[in-house]
């Protein structure tokens, strides 16, 4: 774990923060304001070791956590998030974005859209093979946090990314299996692969598409599946 090292004779930090914005990877240690991403007006000295909530993530995160806490398996996710909030050593940057993913690059970042659910598909090689069922954005967030928890447990080099069709890799299979336990306890559909289609919904716990064309498409998929 890296730590700040300030050289008063230079008026500079000689080492980067433990977790830093990847765009500042090469220059942070030489910039007097690197510890606030060169913006001492907008930032209050974040040390890179706390859960950072951006945009309107705070309210939606609270909504998602309250929902996940209704399941025994989901409470593990909630406890982890609460632990991070009170931790000085574990970093996670949670941001609202148009996409949903976890990156273990500098800063351990989760991009999450609380209005994007996941339409379940049968065949990972065929995006049109939708079952008509939708998972909530909260469950998508749980999936990404599961990845982060595994990295904390075994380290980046300990994560198994070897092939495991129909999943992207063994780590995805492991995450989906844990995700499915939460889904079952919350009455949500489970997945048999690590692929799905984005579906816009009302909020982080909703599973109902807001776009009429998508509603119609998924209703037709459900009817086909019942034949």
Automatic annotation (TrEMBL):
Compositionally biased tracts (Basic and acidic residues): 168-182, 214-227
Organism domain of life: Bacteria
Region (Disordered): 152-227
Gene3D superfamilies, A to Z: RHS repeat-associated core (2.180.10.10)
Designated name of the protein: RHS repeat-associated core domain-containing protein
């Amino acid at each position: 774990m890296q730590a700040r090292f300030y050289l008063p004779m230079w008026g500079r930090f000689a080492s980067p923060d433990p977790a830093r914005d990847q765009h500042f990877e090469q220059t942070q240690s030489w910039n007097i304001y690197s510890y606030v991403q060169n913006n001492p007006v907008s930032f209050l000295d974040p040390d890179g070791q706390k859960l950072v909530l951006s945009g309107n993530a705070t309210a939606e995160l609270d909504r998602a956590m309250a929902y996940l806490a209704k399941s025994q398996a989901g409470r593990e996710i909630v406890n982890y998030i609460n632990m991070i909030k009170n931790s000085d050593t574990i970093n996670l940057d949670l941001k609202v974005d148009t996409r949903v993913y976890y990156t273990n690059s500098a800063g351990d970042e989760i991009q999450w859209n609380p209005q994007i659910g996941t339409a379940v598909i049968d065949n990972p090689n065929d995006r049109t093979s939708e079952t008509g069922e939708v998972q909530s954005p909260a469950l998508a967030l749980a999936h990404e946090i599961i990845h982060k928890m595994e990295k904390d447990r075994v380290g980046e080099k300990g994560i198994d990314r070897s092939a495991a069709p129909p999943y992207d890799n063994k780590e995805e299979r492991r995450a989906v299996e844990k995700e499915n336990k939460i889904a079952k306890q919350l009455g949500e559909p489970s997945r048999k692969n690590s692929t799905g289609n984005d579906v816009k919904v009302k909020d982080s716990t909703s599973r109902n598409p807001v776009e009429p064309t998508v509603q119609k498409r998924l209703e037709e998929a459900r009817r086909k599946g019942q034949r």
